[in-house]
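note to self: dont lose this again. the chain is below, predicted strucutre after it. 88 aa total, dont forget to put it in the shared folder this time
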Amino acid sequence: MSDFAVGDRVRVVTLPPYLKTADTMPMLRPPDLVQIGEEGIVVDRRPSSYWGVKFERGTFLIDRQYIEAAQSHTREEPVSDSTGNDIK
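---
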C-alpha cells in the first residue's frame, strides 16, 4: 500500500458511509456525491490515513481504504496527419 503525492489521480473503489468536506470547518455530506470508479486529484495529505481529494462535485477528506491510484496513460501514441506522416 503506497502513499499518494499531491497531483496524483485516484479512483474511488468503495463508498464511505459519509463524506467529509475539506473546508476549514468540515461538514458531513452524503456519500452519493461521488460514485464508485469516479476519479479525483489529490490536493493534500491529512493526519492519519486521510487525503484531500478534489472530485467533480467538491473536495472531500477521504480515507486511504476507499481510494486507489488511477491508471495513468502516459504512453504517447504517434499522431499522424492525413498523409500518414508522424506529427511531433
